[in-house]
Amino acid sequence: MLAHLTIVPGVGLALGDMLFYAICFIILMWLIKLVAWKPVNKMMQDRADKIANDIDSAEQSRTDAAKLAAQRQEALANSHKEASSIVSDAKQQGQQTRTSLLADAQSDVQTLKSNAQKDIEQERQDALSNAKNDVADLSIEIASKIIHKELNANDQKALIDSYIEGLGKHNES
């Protein structure tokens, strides 16, 4: 009757059965440790490493994206500066071209004005010369008719010069 030792009266659990179950449990745990625990532990470690790598990779990607966004923003700012510079240069060049064209036009106007004044003066001189010759011819003809004789060259010249001086004084007043 000692074969049946009971720990708890009325339950009917024998100490030997309990010892047998404990040894089986320990052996089962040891087998699970050998067969399943290492692969499960390795799988869990691999999973933890993969998650850590993914987090690091995501952080690296986020950092790279932030750098790329900053570079694009800087490139955009530089392109705005370049565009402003190009527009400014174009305006400045247009202003210089305008100034140059105006200066050339003013120079051309001055040249045309000067040439016109020279032409007018030449025409005036030609008209005066023609008038002088016409007056000289008329005065000789009038003098010939008045005097009824032919004047010599020196007399003609003296008569013309005095007549022209009289005309010059008459035009001035």
TrEMBL record:
Role of this protein: F(1)F(0) ATP synthase produces ATP from ADP in the presence of a proton or sodium gradient. F-type ATPases consist of two structural domains, F(1) containing the extramembraneous catalytic core and F(0) containing the membrane proton channel, linked together by a central stalk and a peripheral stalk. During catalysis, ATP synthesis in the catalytic domain of F(1) is coupled via a rotary mechanism of the central stalk subunits to proton translocation. Component of the F(0) channel, it forms part of the peripheral stalk, linking F(1) to F(0).
Instruction: Give the record's subunit note.
Output: F-type ATPases have 2 components, F(1) - the catalytic core - and F(0) - the membrane proton channel. F(1) has five subunits: alpha(3), beta(3), gamma(1), delta(1), epsilon(1). F(0) has three main subunits: a(1), b(2) and c(10-14). The alpha and beta chains form an alternating ring which encloses part of the gamma chain. F(1) is attached to F(0) by a central stalk formed by the gamma and epsilon chains, while a peripheral stalk is formed by the delta and b chains.
Has keyword Transport? yes
What GO terms are given for molecular function? proton-transporting ATP synthase activity, rotational mechanism; proton-transporting ATPase activity, rotational mechanism
Family annotation (PANTHER family): ATP SYNTHASE SUBUNIT B, ATP SYNTHASE SUBUNIT B', CHLOROPLASTIC
Q: Which organism is it from?
A: Secundilactobacillus malefermentans
Query: What protein is this chain from?
Result: ATP synthase subunit b
The protein's location, in the record's own words, is: Cell membrane; Endomembrane system
